[in-house]
Amino acid sequence: MTMRSLSYDHSHYAASFNVFLKKSTEHQCMQEFIQKKLPGIISSVGHEKSSINVLSVGGGAGEIDLQILTKLQDKYPGIIIHNDVIEPNSEQIMKYKENAAKTSNLENIKFTWHKETSSEFESRMKTSKEMRKWNFIHMIQMLYYVDDVSATIRFFHSLLEPGAKLLIVHVSGTSGWAKLWKKLSPRLPVVDRCAYVSSADIKQLLDGAGLKYQSYELPSVMDITDCFTEGNKDGELLLDFLTETNNFVETAPLDLKDEIIKDLKSPELSEKRNGKFLFNNTLSAIVIES
Ligand SMILES: C[S@@+](CC[C@H](N)C(=O)[O-])C[C@H]1O[C@@H](n2cnc3c(N)ncnc32)[C@H](O)[C@@H]1O
């Protein structure tokens, strides 16, 4: 069996991502950022506007999007917010719709879901010559899944209105992810739709493109203890997520599996606390000016 990228199988991806969310403080650290920092970041994006256009690229099941929208609505009461979501995974779109229906006080938000990838959206925009502009665009934990990270950032940046902002949330260059991928990505399904890049690479691209941005570190951990118990279902799904590989345990060569298990336990990647291995899942939030 050959190693394939996790994103090929939408159901398996969603199952693996859900275990990752359950075992990590991923969404908690984003929530803290949204509570403490986002109000300042969005303080001018809707200034004197009759409506606000928000574009979510890779919105997933919408848990984080809905918190962002709530903050925007608090900041701009009574203003209509058009929230467009680009999301290729139909299961995630279904969950997003359920989550939006369950959230109260979203009466000023108009949702439109586009079941497509960011590059399909880009082609559609270019063909239709529509080129709508946006007041706030976010790409939260999705730039791993594009063919060309730099071109994708440049395209979405070009859709910003003057005074608008583009928020990218991505694994930090200081995280366990960056260290694991730096060492092992040549042996993972890299040619198969996964870009093993960290926020350090993204900042380098932004510097090269001369874009102005501000960056915040969001400390976070993931309990990976289950990865070390053979046959543990959650552990196997976490290993899939860590390596972005579909069925890593069944498809990876033995020496690679052994090496990853050893590396994941190393203090460079994980801290051992109360008998648990806590993987460094620190994120970066990068806010780019129009
Ligand atoms: C790690 S999840 C993050 C979801 C959400 N933003 C969050 O933080 O909870 C990545 C999401 O990006 C979506 N995705 C994958 N490839 C994509 C692409 N090429 N364009 C847009 N979204 C993509 C996936 O389906 C998935 O829902």
Give a description of the structure.
This is Histamine N-methyltransferase. S-adenosyl-L-methionine binds at residues 58, 87, 92, 118, 140. Keywords: Methyltransferase, S-adenosyl-L-methionine, Transferase. This protein is α/β, with parallel strands linked by helices and 290 residues long. Helices cover 42% and strands 23% of the residues. It contains 12 helices and 12 strands. It has helices spanning 10-23, 26-36, 38-41, 63-75, 90-102, 118-128, 149-157, 176-184, 199-209, 233-243, 248-251, 254-265; strands at residues 4-5, 51-57, 80-86, 109-114, 134-140, 160-171, 213-218, 221-223, 245-246, 270-273, 276-280, 283-289. Strands 4-3-2-5-6-12-7 form a 7-stranded mixed sheet, sandwiched between helices. A 3-stranded antiparallel sheet has the order 8-11-10, with no helix packed on it. Helix 7 links the parallel strand 5 and strand 6 (160-171). Helix 1 packs across helix 10 and helix 2 runs parallel beside helix 4. The N and C termini lie far apart (46 Å). The site of S-adenosylmethionine has 20 residues, from helix 4.
Largest sheet: 7 strands, mixed
Binned strand content: 15-25%
Our count of helices gives 12
Bound molecules: S-adenosylmethionine
Cα shape? globular
Written as H for each helix and E for each strand, in order along the chain, the element string is EHHHEHEHEHEHEHHEEHEHHEEE
The rounded distance between the terminal residues' Cα atoms is 46 Å
Compute the number of strand runs. 12
The structural class is: alpha/beta
Radius of gyration: 19 Å
* Mean pLDDT reading: 94
Low-confidence stretches: none
Helix content: 40-55%
The largest sheet has its strands arranged as 4-3-2-5-6-12-7
Protein name: Histamine N-methyltransferase
Binding site for S-adenosyl-L-methionine: 58, 87, 92, 118, 140
InterPro entries: HHMT-like, SAM-dependent_MTases_sf
Keywords: Methyltransferase, S-adenosyl-L-methionine, Transferase
